[in-house]
Amino acid sequence: MNIxxxxxxIATLRKIDHRIMAVVVGFFLFLLVFEVAVSVTxxxxxxxxxxxxxxxxxxxxxxxFTHTNGVVSGTGTASDPYLISxxxxxxxxxxxxxxxxxxxxxxxxxxxxxxIQSNFAQVPATGAKLIWLVNIHTPxxxxxxxxxxxxxxxxxxxxxxxxxxxxxxxxSLNRIGDHGILLNxxxxxxxxxxxxxADGDGVLMQNSHHITIGSQCNLATGTDCNAFTYDDGRGxxxxxxxxxxxxxxxxxxxxxxxxxxxxxxxYNVTLINxxxxxxxxxxxxxxxxxxxxxxxxxxxxxSGIAIINGAHDISVKDYNIHGNAHYDIMNGGDGNYLxxxxxxxxxxxxTLPGGANIDLNGNCYGTQSGFSPTPTxxxxxx
Length: 382
Hints:
mainly beta, 3 helices, eleven-stranded parallel beta sheet, 2 domains, about 40% strand, Pectate Lyase C-like
């Protein structure tokens, strides 16, 4: 609510004749309600999520879509999908909070998942997934999911195996013990308006294709942007995956690199309008052993954007790229790793560069390694 506007309304009311005061008060109350109603943003709307306690949910056939199994509405058709929503699931001892497993091909109904929260109070020693889909190909939306695993070992926020036509929207996953989002052999996945922080990678895709990350947003403020930050691994690791679009996405303060495009099966990858920063490892004390160790991975291509191991047909445009601890952009590794706890540069095996048709012209960056000729720069004028 605009404070100045509110005060002006009060002052105006005081000047009005008492005989019409009741009418005017009613009018301004209407204005107040109207202003609140029209100012609701997607983030505010998601705050209406008020989940209730629920036990883990497992669905392996159409018969499992029941009220007892978390379904709150819907008939399972494309126009009226089942809705699993408004649940807080603290117990992940089966290895998941929600798992929809179509391995046997017995799920034909449409569904969506929304308003799911967890504090991961009970997690097995081997880890768990907050939401896990297997072999799901009907159009499905997963939205308004929030959780903090407090770095519990092996925890994954969202895992999609052999699945497609999935939209992930408004995820808020913090201190996830492994990966924020893991895509295994999946396709036609869309990730928007999500904030991820993980001890592994923010997003890891393996053997997947037709993946879109991001939608138009305000990069300066981060409003409605994907932000994969403070990951011990990479913000985004594209591993042997093709036809990938990353746009309006912030990957920063990631200890092992902002974005890594890896493998000769990674191709037709486009990055547009984003921020990529690989700050590199920091020296941190292990609370269990009391020994100071570098965070992140011991690799030789820590940078804002790295292209390695034959990845080809790649275009990066209008990106702001910083390596901070190493180079800003890298084509292959350089055989060096800086141990942040000892200050010693360690010589390790040199990672292979990318393949043909790599275009990084037109980005803002400072230093580069492995590109010939050097990509042109396009930085805003001071």
